[in-house]
Amino acid sequence: MDKIQLKALAKINLGLDVLRRREDGYHEVKMIMQTISLCDELELRRRKQPGIQVRTNLHYLPTNENNLVYKAARLLMEEFQIKDGISIQLQKRIPVAAGMAGGSSDAAAVLWGMNQMYGFGLSRRDLMGRGVRLGADVPYCVLRGTALAEGIGEELTILPPMPKCYILLAKPGISVSTRFVYENLHANDLKAEQHPDVDAMIQAIKEKDLELLASRMGNVLELVTVPSHPVIGEIRTCMLEAGALGAMMSGSGPTVFGIFDTQAKARKAYHAMRAGWLAKQVYLTVPYNVRR
Q1: What is the average pLDDT value for the chain, to the nearest integer?
Q2: Is 15 within 8 Å of 31 (Cβ atoms)?
Q3: Can you state the angle between helices 102-118 and 124-131, rounded to 10 degrees?
Q4: Alpha-carbon span 23 to 105, nearest angstrom
Protein backbone atom coordinates (compact mmCIF):
# COMPACT_ATOMS: atom_id res chain seq x y z
CA MET A 1 0.00 0.00 0.00
CA ASP A 2 1.55 3.28 -1.14
CA LYS A 3 -1.28 5.67 -0.25
CA ILE A 4 -4.07 5.84 2.33
CA GLN A 5 -6.78 8.42 3.03
CA LEU A 6 -8.11 8.92 6.54
CA LYS A 7 -10.58 10.95 8.58
CA ALA A 8 -9.56 12.34 11.97
CA LEU A 9 -12.68 12.92 14.05
CA ALA A 10 -13.18 15.70 16.59
CA LYS A 11 -14.36 15.08 20.15
CA ILE A 12 -16.38 16.84 22.80
CA ASN A 13 -16.47 16.30 26.55
CA LEU A 14 -19.95 15.47 27.82
CA GLY A 15 -18.54 15.68 31.33
CA LEU A 16 -15.19 16.91 32.60
CA ASP A 17 -14.08 16.76 36.21
CA VAL A 18 -10.62 17.37 37.65
CA LEU A 19 -10.16 15.35 40.83
CA ARG A 20 -6.81 16.67 42.02
CA ARG A 21 -3.41 17.95 41.03
CA ARG A 22 -0.72 15.33 41.53
CA GLU A 23 2.71 15.96 42.96
CA ASP A 24 4.24 15.50 39.49
CA GLY A 25 2.16 18.41 38.19
CA TYR A 26 -0.31 16.34 36.18
CA HIS A 27 -4.03 16.49 36.93
CA GLU A 28 -6.21 13.46 37.59
CA VAL A 29 -9.40 13.72 35.57
CA LYS A 30 -12.72 11.97 35.13
CA MET A 31 -14.24 12.72 31.74
CA ILE A 32 -16.82 11.39 29.33
CA MET A 33 -15.44 11.68 25.81
CA GLN A 34 -17.60 11.58 22.68
CA THR A 35 -16.47 11.46 19.06
CA ILE A 36 -18.42 13.62 16.62
CA SER A 37 -18.63 13.56 12.83
CA LEU A 38 -16.76 16.84 12.26
CA CYS A 39 -13.35 15.78 10.96
CA ASP A 40 -10.01 16.63 9.40
CA GLU A 41 -8.86 14.69 6.34
CA LEU A 42 -5.40 13.22 5.85
CA GLU A 43 -3.62 11.56 2.95
CA LEU A 44 -0.46 9.54 3.63
CA ARG A 45 1.88 8.63 0.77
CA ARG A 46 5.16 6.75 0.68
CA ARG A 47 8.12 8.69 -0.74
CA LYS A 48 11.42 7.39 -2.10
CA GLN A 49 13.20 10.33 -0.50
CA PRO A 50 13.84 9.76 3.21
CA GLY A 51 12.23 11.99 5.81
CA ILE A 52 8.80 13.28 6.77
CA GLN A 53 7.01 15.89 4.68
CA VAL A 54 3.90 17.59 6.14
CA ARG A 55 1.65 19.94 4.19
CA THR A 56 -1.53 21.61 5.41
CA ASN A 57 -4.16 24.06 4.21
CA LEU A 58 -3.53 26.41 7.17
CA HIS A 59 -0.45 28.57 6.67
CA TYR A 60 0.06 29.20 10.39
CA LEU A 61 0.33 25.56 11.42
CA PRO A 62 3.86 24.16 11.87
CA THR A 63 4.90 21.43 9.44
CA ASN A 64 7.97 20.26 11.36
CA GLU A 65 8.53 18.38 14.63
CA ASN A 66 6.23 20.88 16.37
CA ASN A 67 3.23 19.27 14.66
CA LEU A 68 1.74 16.16 16.27
CA VAL A 69 1.30 14.40 12.91
CA TYR A 70 5.05 14.75 12.32
CA LYS A 71 5.78 13.38 15.78
CA ALA A 72 3.41 10.43 15.24
CA ALA A 73 5.07 9.51 11.95
CA ARG A 74 8.55 9.84 13.42
CA LEU A 75 7.65 7.65 16.40
CA LEU A 76 6.72 4.67 14.20
CA MET A 77 9.41 5.26 11.58
CA GLU A 78 12.11 5.20 14.26
CA GLU A 79 10.66 2.15 16.02
CA PHE A 80 10.33 0.10 12.83
CA GLN A 81 13.42 1.57 11.14
CA ILE A 82 11.60 2.78 8.04
CA LYS A 83 14.20 4.00 5.56
CA ASP A 84 12.02 5.56 2.90
CA GLY A 85 10.02 8.73 3.47
CA ILE A 86 6.40 9.65 4.02
CA SER A 87 4.32 12.59 2.82
CA ILE A 88 1.33 13.73 4.91
CA GLN A 89 -1.30 16.08 3.46
CA LEU A 90 -3.49 17.49 6.25
CA GLN A 91 -6.78 19.24 5.45
CA LYS A 92 -7.90 20.97 8.64
CA ARG A 93 -11.61 21.44 9.34
CA ILE A 94 -11.67 20.98 13.11
CA PRO A 95 -11.09 24.39 14.74
CA VAL A 96 -7.54 24.78 16.04
CA ALA A 97 -6.93 25.16 19.80
CA ALA A 98 -10.63 24.74 20.42
CA GLY A 99 -10.88 22.02 23.09
CA MET A 100 -11.87 19.41 20.49
CA ALA A 101 -8.64 17.34 20.27
CA GLY A 102 -8.04 18.15 16.62
CA GLY A 103 -4.27 17.77 16.82
CA SER A 104 -4.52 14.60 18.89
CA SER A 105 -7.00 13.08 16.44
CA ASP A 106 -4.69 13.90 13.52
CA ALA A 107 -1.83 12.13 15.32
CA ALA A 108 -4.05 9.12 16.03
CA ALA A 109 -5.00 8.94 12.35
CA VAL A 110 -1.33 8.93 11.34
CA LEU A 111 -0.59 6.07 13.76
CA TRP A 112 -3.55 4.10 12.41
CA GLY A 113 -2.76 4.86 8.77
CA MET A 114 0.92 4.00 8.94
CA ASN A 115 0.08 0.74 10.72
CA GLN A 116 -2.18 -0.16 7.79
CA MET A 117 0.12 1.13 5.06
CA TYR A 118 3.30 -0.53 6.31
CA GLY A 119 1.68 -3.64 7.80
CA PHE A 120 3.22 -3.27 11.26
CA GLY A 121 0.56 -5.59 12.71
CA LEU A 122 -0.11 -3.41 15.75
CA SER A 123 -3.44 -3.83 17.56
CA ARG A 124 -5.66 -0.93 18.56
CA ARG A 125 -4.37 -1.33 22.12
CA ASP A 126 -0.77 -1.24 20.82
CA LEU A 127 -1.47 2.02 18.99
CA MET A 128 -3.10 3.52 22.07
CA GLY A 129 -0.01 2.66 24.12
CA ARG A 130 2.21 4.48 21.67
CA GLY A 131 -0.24 7.36 21.38
CA VAL A 132 0.04 8.32 25.05
CA ARG A 133 3.67 9.28 24.38
CA LEU A 134 2.35 12.00 22.07
CA GLY A 135 -0.42 13.35 24.31
CA ALA A 136 -3.05 12.32 26.85
CA ASP A 137 -5.94 12.59 24.33
CA VAL A 138 -4.29 10.53 21.58
CA PRO A 139 -5.22 7.06 22.99
CA TYR A 140 -8.88 8.10 23.10
CA CYS A 141 -8.67 9.42 19.53
CA VAL A 142 -7.43 5.97 18.47
CA LEU A 143 -10.31 4.32 20.36
CA ARG A 144 -13.15 6.72 19.36
CA GLY A 145 -16.81 6.45 20.35
CA THR A 146 -18.16 7.08 23.85
CA ALA A 147 -15.71 6.46 26.69
CA LEU A 148 -14.87 7.29 30.29
CA ALA A 149 -11.35 8.72 30.61
CA GLU A 150 -9.54 8.63 33.93
CA GLY A 151 -5.97 9.03 35.21
CA ILE A 152 -4.48 11.85 33.15
CA GLY A 153 -6.90 10.88 30.38
CA GLU A 154 -5.23 7.69 29.20
CA GLU A 155 -7.23 5.17 31.29
CA LEU A 156 -10.22 4.45 29.05
CA THR A 157 -13.42 2.50 29.63
CA ILE A 158 -15.79 1.97 26.70
CA LEU A 159 -19.36 3.18 27.37
CA PRO A 160 -22.60 2.48 25.49
CA PRO A 161 -23.19 4.83 22.53
CA MET A 162 -24.51 8.29 23.24
CA PRO A 163 -28.25 8.65 22.46
CA LYS A 164 -29.08 9.99 19.01
CA CYS A 165 -29.06 13.78 18.90
CA TYR A 166 -27.81 16.85 17.02
CA ILE A 167 -24.83 18.86 18.22
CA LEU A 168 -24.28 22.55 17.54
CA LEU A 169 -20.71 23.81 17.88
CA ALA A 170 -19.74 27.46 18.23
CA LYS A 171 -16.19 28.76 18.66
CA PRO A 172 -15.65 32.43 19.43
CA GLY A 173 -12.73 34.26 17.88
CA ILE A 174 -10.47 33.87 20.90
CA SER A 175 -7.73 31.51 21.99
CA VAL A 176 -7.55 29.80 25.38
CA SER A 177 -4.37 28.45 26.94
CA THR A 178 -4.95 24.97 28.35
CA ARG A 179 -1.96 25.45 30.64
CA PHE A 180 -3.41 28.70 32.01
CA VAL A 181 -6.76 27.06 32.71
CA TYR A 182 -5.33 24.11 34.63
CA GLU A 183 -2.83 26.23 36.54
CA ASN A 184 -5.61 28.53 37.74
CA LEU A 185 -8.15 25.84 38.59
CA HIS A 186 -6.68 25.04 42.04
CA ALA A 187 -8.17 21.57 41.78
CA ASN A 188 -7.23 20.48 45.29
CA ASP A 189 -9.28 23.33 46.79
CA LEU A 190 -12.56 22.75 44.93
CA LYS A 191 -15.72 22.20 46.96
CA ALA A 192 -17.77 19.03 46.48
CA GLU A 193 -20.65 20.88 44.81
CA GLN A 194 -18.28 22.32 42.19
CA HIS A 195 -17.55 18.86 40.78
CA PRO A 196 -19.91 17.63 38.04
CA ASP A 197 -21.66 14.31 38.65
CA VAL A 198 -19.97 12.21 36.00
CA ASP A 199 -21.45 8.98 37.39
CA ALA A 200 -24.98 10.35 36.86
CA MET A 201 -24.07 11.13 33.24
CA ILE A 202 -22.82 7.59 32.73
CA GLN A 203 -26.09 6.22 34.10
CA ALA A 204 -28.08 8.48 31.76
CA ILE A 205 -26.07 7.15 28.81
CA LYS A 206 -26.75 3.57 29.88
CA GLU A 207 -30.47 4.37 30.14
CA LYS A 208 -30.37 6.15 26.74
CA ASP A 209 -31.96 9.18 28.40
CA LEU A 210 -30.78 12.17 26.35
CA GLU A 211 -32.68 14.77 28.38
CA LEU A 212 -31.24 13.51 31.67
CA LEU A 213 -27.74 13.36 30.19
CA ALA A 214 -27.95 16.94 28.91
CA SER A 215 -29.26 18.21 32.25
CA ARG A 216 -26.34 16.64 34.15
CA MET A 217 -23.53 17.78 31.85
CA GLY A 218 -20.77 19.74 33.55
CA ASN A 219 -17.24 20.98 32.96
CA VAL A 220 -15.24 22.08 35.99
CA LEU A 221 -12.83 24.04 33.78
CA GLU A 222 -15.60 26.57 33.12
CA LEU A 223 -14.84 27.90 36.62
CA VAL A 224 -11.67 29.40 35.15
CA THR A 225 -12.41 29.91 31.47
CA VAL A 226 -15.83 31.58 31.59
CA PRO A 227 -14.84 34.40 34.00
CA SER A 228 -11.75 35.03 31.87
CA HIS A 229 -13.73 34.95 28.60
CA PRO A 230 -17.40 35.91 29.23
CA VAL A 231 -18.30 35.33 25.57
CA ILE A 232 -18.20 31.58 26.31
CA GLY A 233 -20.99 31.98 28.85
CA GLU A 234 -22.92 34.18 26.46
CA ILE A 235 -22.79 31.54 23.72
CA ARG A 236 -23.92 28.87 26.18
CA THR A 237 -26.89 31.03 27.23
CA CYS A 238 -27.85 31.67 23.61
CA MET A 239 -27.88 27.94 22.85
CA LEU A 240 -30.11 27.20 25.83
CA GLU A 241 -32.48 29.99 24.83
CA ALA A 242 -32.54 28.52 21.30
CA GLY A 243 -33.84 25.20 22.63
CA ALA A 244 -30.75 23.18 23.53
CA LEU A 245 -31.38 20.50 26.14
CA GLY A 246 -27.96 21.35 27.54
CA ALA A 247 -24.95 23.45 26.55
CA MET A 248 -21.37 23.43 27.80
CA MET A 249 -17.79 24.29 26.97
CA SER A 250 -15.73 21.43 25.54
CA GLY A 251 -12.35 20.69 27.10
CA SER A 252 -10.51 23.83 28.17
CA GLY A 253 -12.44 25.81 25.56
CA PRO A 254 -13.29 28.03 23.98
CA THR A 255 -15.71 25.95 21.85
CA VAL A 256 -19.24 25.60 23.23
CA PHE A 257 -21.58 22.82 22.18
CA GLY A 258 -25.33 22.43 22.54
CA ILE A 259 -27.33 19.20 22.49
CA PHE A 260 -30.62 19.20 20.54
CA ASP A 261 -33.22 16.45 20.31
CA THR A 262 -34.52 17.39 16.84
CA GLN A 263 -32.83 18.44 13.64
CA ALA A 264 -35.31 21.29 13.16
CA LYS A 265 -34.38 22.91 16.48
CA ALA A 266 -30.69 22.41 15.82
CA ARG A 267 -30.88 23.97 12.35
CA LYS A 268 -32.83 26.97 13.65
CA ALA A 269 -30.21 27.50 16.38
CA TYR A 270 -27.41 27.04 13.82
CA HIS A 271 -28.75 29.82 11.60
CA ALA A 272 -29.32 32.09 14.60
CA MET A 273 -25.75 31.56 15.78
CA ARG A 274 -24.36 32.14 12.30
CA ALA A 275 -26.30 35.42 12.06
CA GLY A 276 -24.97 36.70 15.39
CA TRP A 277 -21.59 38.10 16.41
CA LEU A 278 -20.66 35.82 19.30
CA ALA A 279 -19.09 32.95 17.36
CA LYS A 280 -16.54 33.00 14.57
CA GLN A 281 -16.94 29.32 13.57
CA VAL A 282 -20.24 27.43 13.74
CA TYR A 283 -20.89 23.79 12.85
CA LEU A 284 -23.83 21.41 13.05
CA THR A 285 -22.89 17.76 13.52
CA VAL A 286 -23.92 14.48 15.16
CA PRO A 287 -22.29 11.93 17.48
CA TYR A 288 -20.06 9.34 15.80
CA ASN A 289 -20.64 6.02 17.51
CA VAL A 290 -18.31 3.13 16.83
CA ARG A 291 -19.72 -0.34 16.22
CA ARG A 292 -17.75 -2.81 18.31
Answers
A1: 95
A2: yes
A3: 130
A4: 28
